[in-house]
Amino acid sequence: MLEQGKISIRQATLLMVLTILATAILFLPSIATVQAGQEAWISALIATANGIIISLLVVTLMRRFPEQTIIQYSEDILGKFLGKIVGLGYFWFFLHTNAIIIREFGDFLVAAFMPKTPLIVFNSMIVILAVLAIRSGLEPLGRLNEWIFILFSSILIFFTVFLIHEMQVENFLPVLERGIVPALKGAVTPTSWFGEIILLSMIFPFLTQPQRGYRVAIGAHLIVGAFLLIGVVQSVSIFGPELVSAFKFPIIQTVRLISLGEFLERIEVLIMVIWVAGVFVKVSVFHYATVMSAAQLFNLTDYRPLAIPLGILVVILSIHLFQGVVDLVEFLSVTFPVYALSTFEVGIPALLLVIALIRGKGAKNVPNKKNN
Amino acid sequence: MCQIKKIIKNILTGAIIVFLLLNVGCWDLNEVEDITLMIATGFDFQPEEELISYTSHLIRPAGLAGEEEGGGAPGVGPVWISTSTGKNIFEASLNLAARSSRVLFEAHTRIIVVGEELARQRVNELVDFLIRRREQRLNSWILVAREGTAAEVLQAETELEDTVSQEIEGILDNQQRLSTAPRVQVREFVSSLIQPGKDSFVPVLEVREEIQPPEEDLLAAQPEGETKKYIVLQGTAVFSGDKLAGYLTVPETKGLLWVQGEVGRAVIIPEKPDGGQVTVFISRARSSLEPKFKEDKLKIKIEIETEGDIGSSNIREDISDPLVIEKLESKLANNIKQEVLLAFDKSQEYQSDFLHLGAAFRREDPQKWAKVKENWRQNLSEVEVEVRVITELRRTGLTTDPVIREE
Amino acid sequence: MWPLLRKIKNTLKLNAEKNTGSKQAGVKDTSEFDELPLTANLSERIAQIRSVMGNSIDLVVREFVIGEESKAKAAVVYLDGLISNATVFDNILTPLMFEAQSIKAGEKFSPPKVFKKLVESRLSAGEIMVKENNSELFTHLVGGDTIIIIDGHLSFIVVCARAWETRAVAEPENESVVRGPREGFVETLKVNLSMVRRRLRTPHLKFETYYIGNTTSTSFVVAYLDNIANPKLVQEVRERLGRIDTDAIISTGYLEDYIEDNSYSPFAQTRATERPDIVTAELLEGKVAIIGDNTPFCIIVPTTFFEQLQGADDYYQRPWFGAVLVRLLRLVAINIALLLPSIYVAITTYHQELLPTSLLISISGSREGVPFPAVVEALIMESTFELLREAGLRLPSPIGTAVSIVGALVLGDAAVRAGIVSPAMVIVVAITAIASFSIPGFSAALALRQLRFPLMFLGATLGLFGIMFGLLVILIHLASLRSFGVPYMAPLAPLMPRDLKDIFGRPPQWAMGKRPRYMRTQDPVRQAENLKPRPPDSGNKKNNK
Predict the structure, then answer these.
(1) Which domain, by its residues, includes C47?
(2) What is the interface pTM, i.e. ipTM, of the complex?
């Protein structure tokens, strides 16, 4: 195996949580409110439900091949040639999505906090961190992430608690003003974020107890859904849906309102700082997937030498993919969901599963591994 | 030989890395002494010249950190009040920056004053400016300057604080107890502006002059008989859509505040024209709107619940008598009802839905609301309003019977 | 380009390479002396010894005759100063010279018999060995043993009668406690071992000796409890020690460099202590201690980040609130020592909106007239402070403390008045310094102090984001660091909730029922359950489980 370490169920779950949550919580309130107005919270719930369905599908596929990543068993299922093509596709998917994420991250920081700093600085710094993180394998990242998750979530909850007195429930009424359709529309993009659970397929072989794979995926989605709900509720109840859809990053605006006894104010920078840690985890996981898939595609014995070159590639890609923020947001809300969901997140895994069932590939039951 | 080459290579690599790192960064660097804090901003519009005026209070650090000079001499003081003009707000702010030797730091702005003319004509420009700027906070207080310009307001003199902006902040704080004007943050203002069925309202500042009585104190910088400009916070400015529609007097403002559920403390109940008055401190107030669509009639019931304590009384009756209390309670309820109705009248007159009745209708039944929302503001006059007030007087201060009794 | 990348790759490689060294520990390389011709002739031998040892003034050769009637010539060779005169005189020379009657001239001289007799019945010393090689002769001679050579015999007798001047047992300076034992290790291995032995009175306490260093041959003892410590851990320690093939190991500090997992890390992966009670506690948790000769510092492996922050005091003071406050304070102190200057620089330079308005006004007012940007100010102050600290260490104690305090105060004050630095910066630096002093564990504090400077640079170039970047780099490093297989950040990462209570607080002894999970000991249970003190039962129910 290219990877020596093993990660536990809890670590894997939290890794997936942070992978999905880090950017979702920033963009979801605004994107969902544009379509769904005050029903954005329903969008969040719908998206979570969709996510769970997706994870059921995807994990079933993974469980049939508990020792392999998707790159490896697509060769198994489809034969060498087609399998490699699928693998290449996934490599591209991970690389491309990572570039998008890094771009989102850099844009956010530049727009909100440091407008004069060139984008490449933030992008390359986060990639440097990701490269450092995966050099030692998956385990340290898993360990560190347990702690980052605790920090991330407690800050979120802390902020929400302090804003309770600013929330106005009327901002959620009337419910279902225009029927359920806007809420459904608003759930499309978030579902594509939930679909990022496909990354689990690159980590699945290294779980200590692969038979509990369902727990990882569904647990992660539930936790992400809960936090997204909190995020949406917070923004919409404070500002009202119209204002939220006008904002690019509603979370900053809500945090700015926190005022504790006149001296703890204007603390949105602290959000940025914690959030950087969250995005770091996400980018690291994606980069790990990218590098690992490349290593498996080319049958290398060690994935480490690829980390730096692919890192450079992803930074360059992140800068040149989009012209500006408007481009980025449009891509995110319109193109990405359709493209990602239909192919790599749901479409191809479903196809693989069906073919695997037909051809009888893969194990039916996952052997129970004892926890070390 | 090979060793030396290796060493040199390593050293060079290290040096390159270090120099690269040292060159990095500092794009957004702003040393503390290079910035000046903007703590209040005023926006005015001069219709004749089509110019926007941008006034701000900029802190002078040296003046505040050390000794204070005896206030009064213009030009030297803790705050530099400067005004600049431009064709739109952004340009005006740039022109201000052009005059300043330091970088303007807007993040600490707490007070935003809007001149009357601007409120009448250019609010959407202002709103865009306020939301889009990175450093503006949405929880700054926004106020309107009545019959005057924001610049005048910001140049008024202060009583207790160093700067006008601190005065305004303090007075706004006190409003929680006085309820002569609402407190509105920028985000509430904008949110009411863009939500359907709502209109925004903003407290009003006026600049008044009074003749300064001659001072005995030799250290006073004021020579005798000079006029002193001071600010007063009173009343409300209401908007219809994005235009200023009119002003509310204090009782009408009270009515507005009752419906918003944000009344502070004191209410005065005149007992009889000659009989004395009772003041009540309101400790809790809650309101709820119950809209009803009746065929094509729109009815709304405003229900207000409030609790209060008796603050002072100089009526002759015995207020420890429950019957008297009941009478007072119904008097109070009537008072409140009158105030609310006054506010509603004005709402119809100005065609401004600052009581947010429309939003209540929308929450109740969105489909029916969709039918009437076209000319909602004009249709306000068609709405039937019923006001029901429940009051409870709980406590009577530290005494019960009036000390001087009716004989 | 590629060599650069390779270099980066090598320096970033954080995994220790497992070494499968096969060299046996404890074998010393004095085989050079085996080349000397072996001889049974006494005077030749003595001449050999003298030529090898030179004419050292401390070499003593005492020739005598065994027994009163026999003519068996013998000699006692030792190095003066390393042996206890009393033992040599009373227990070796006296019996051999006066009481060995049985060796009569003419009796059948079978060497084994003679030796046997001498060794078994004549020499009244404790530790006696019979050896043959020349190399071993010299090894033992320089080790401080006494050699008895008998004419005509190739073998010789080695008697251990070591004694030398040693420091009195005193409280270690760097690890003093308010309440607790005041014994500290000294430079003599046997004394140290005895201190540990006294505290762990169980046959399970094992000592394994190694002589490391080709020229110094320093003895190191690996101590562990064989019913608790994980045998794989002990084996790993043995292997790492056995791998060392170098000239000199002067103290355990040198040893650290050879056996630790990652020498590039600023964080120490072994814990050094002078206190036997700490060693005892660690051994009971399943760790392995390496006690060395000529140094009072004993190394304990493996160790985690949080163990370095524990002081000896903690366990002797009140549990819960007493020690909780202290432990939390230490955690806060770590953060302050590492982050405060950089955060100050970052906030005043990039994120002024974080400060409350009035504070910002006064800071900016106080910085009027200061010519340097914040980061340069910070650097100046911090470097000055480090210089003062070093100076204070070098000077003898009364002057040292005075210089540090006075220097800091006066310099700071004068600098503020001269307008070189702002008063806020002086405060920041002072608080940082105090925080870094309050961290127990010298090496941990040192690591944090070093890391402050890069963080300051990062904070000055990219604000809080830069600091977060630096912090994440440090955290990644910490998360992947292992000390002898134990993750360095356990029990925080990986999260082991049961052991967390010992980091953030100190539960009372009755609550610490199990040994730390990350040590993977053989016997994780420390004590019986239900040991919480209770008021006596009413009625006649028995209390014990």
Answers:
(1) 31-160
(2) 0.87
